[in-house]
Amino acid sequence: MGEPLREPLCAGLTALGLAFDDAQIDRLLDFLTLLQRWNRVYNLTAVREPREMLTYHVLDSLAAVAPLRGHLQGAGTPTPTLLDVGSGGGLPGVVFAIALPELAVTCVDAVAKKAAFVQQVAGALHLRNLRGVHARVQTVAGPFDVVSSRAFAALADFAAWSRAALAPQGVWLAMKGRHPHDEIAALPANVQVFHVEPLAVPGLDAERCIVWMRPAPPAAYT
Question: In angstroms, rounded to a whole number, what is the distance separating the alpha carbons of residues 77 and 80?
């Protein structure tokens, strides 16, 4: 299924201002092929049509790559690490691993078949910077420089469940649809939102954003 999607994928990359080499583009297309193949048996995603998978999953995840890259460059961490929570079919974790080879990505999911799929992708696409872990996020040991999620849980739950895995100077990257005003208002005082970044997904007429969070300094909530 990969080749018919090459042109719309490349158009999406251009719209997002991303310059990928041929190997990265091939890996994204191969990932889509694997996702479709495994989805027939393991029901990794409710989206089944290949073009919709490209838009709703791959391009949606790619929209966060430039902001993530900018954060990592600003942080200056030489070998950054990222934990993708509730990764499901590897979204956005697999896409991040393909887009940012310098980033070590761990995808964690409580469903064994989903973690196994990520491991299969890592082997099939020769992604040494990617691994899938079958576990509850509360049991995952860090530290990770970035902890990400995509439509995973309410912000307060996401932060609470993954806090032990976050590095002291780490950040949370939560991909959301509309600006989650109510979820932000429900955050505890020890979690600080420092930026809500709007995203534009090529071919998708829907609101998307990243909620960037970090632990608040003790003085801020004592």
Answer: 5
Query: pLDDT tens digit string along 7-35?
Result: 999 999 999 999 999 999 999 999 999 99
**What fold is seen in the domain 61-221?**
Rossmann fold (3.40.50)
- Provide the strand spans (E) within the chain: 81-85, 104-109, 130-134, 144-150, 166-176, 191-199, 208-215
pLDDT digits (tens, 9 = 90+) for 175-186: 999 999 999 999
Q: pTM here?
A: 0.95
Delimit the domains of the chain by residue range: 61-221
pLDDT, residue 220, reads: 56
C-alpha separations of 159 from 52, 97, 128, 132, 186 in Å: 30, 22, 28, 20, 12
Look at the alpha carbons of 76, 80, 86, 90 in this order and tell me if their dihedral is positive or negative. Answer: positive
Q: What is the largest CA-CA distance in the chain?
A: 56
Q: Token pair for residue 22?
A: 């041929």
Cα–Cα distance, 151 to 157 (Å, whole number): 12
Evaluate whether 123 touches 94 at the Cβ level (below 8 Å). no
